[in-house]
């Protein structure tokens, strides 16, 4: 039996969907906001880049990046509930696309689809998933 205090479903689509239904689509950004990350992002990522935002959540970072001149950001998240909310919210921002996708299977994208991928606040989900799958302590 796992000693983890987190539910085994943590990091699975159902768990994430339930969280977003509860939050009702309110914007929330984990850790740093774009304003704090901007100096690094602007230095490393030209605005014309094709960007992949992995585990986008309801974060404002993609919107802020468009306001800062970025032109193509594909946002993926495992939660379909979240993706539908974001599609409605940003229907008039063609620079942002939202797709429901599990980062563990991105085979829908061909090689070299993106110039850059941003992953913010998702590694904890992945570590939990790996420990659920492989560790029994
Ligand atoms: C802690 S939130 C971070 C959200 C956002 N990146 C931020 O910085 O605020 C983690 C996000 O990763 C998503 N997620 C969890 N597991 C995922 C997976 N296997 N594939 C894609 N997204 C996943 C969750 O639905 C959630 O929106």
TrEMBL record:
Keywords annotated in UniProt: Methyltransferase, Transferase
Lineage: superkingdom: Eukaryota
Keyword Nuclease listed: no
GO BP of this protein: methylation
Xref: InterPro entries: Lys/N-term_MeTrsfase_sf, Methyltransf_11, SAM-dependent_MTases_sf
GO molecular function, one term: S-adenosylmethionine-dependent methyltransferase activity
Pfam families: Methyltransf_11 (PF08241)
Domain Methyltransferase type: 52-125
Keyword Transport found: no
PANTHER family, sorted: S-ADENOSYL-L-METHIONINE-DEPENDENT METHYLTRANSFERASES SUPERFAMILY PROTEIN, SAM-DEPENDENT METHYLTRANSFERASE SUPERFAMILY PROTEIN
Family named by the database record: Belongs to the methyltransferase superfamily.
Designated name of the protein: Methyltransferase type 11 domain-containing protein
Organism name: Hordeum vulgare subsp. vulgare (Domesticated barley)
């Amino acid at each position: 039996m796992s000693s983890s205090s987190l539910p085994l479903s943590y990091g699975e689509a159902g768990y994430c969907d339930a969280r977003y239904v509860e939050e009702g689509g309110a914007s929330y950004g984990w850790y740093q906001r774009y304003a704090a990350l901007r100096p690094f992002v602007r230095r490393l990522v030209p605005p014309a880049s094709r960007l992949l935002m992995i585990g986008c959540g309801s974060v404002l970072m993609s919107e802020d990046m468009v306001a800062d001149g970025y032109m193509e950001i594909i946002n993926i998240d495992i939660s379909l509930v979240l993706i539908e909310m974001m599609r409605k919210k940003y229907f008039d921002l063609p620079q942002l696309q939202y797709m429901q996708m599990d980062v563990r299977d991105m085979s829908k994208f061909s090689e070299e689809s993106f110039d850059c991928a941003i992953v913010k606040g998702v590694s904890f989900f992945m570590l939990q998933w790996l420990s659920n799958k492989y560790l029994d302590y």
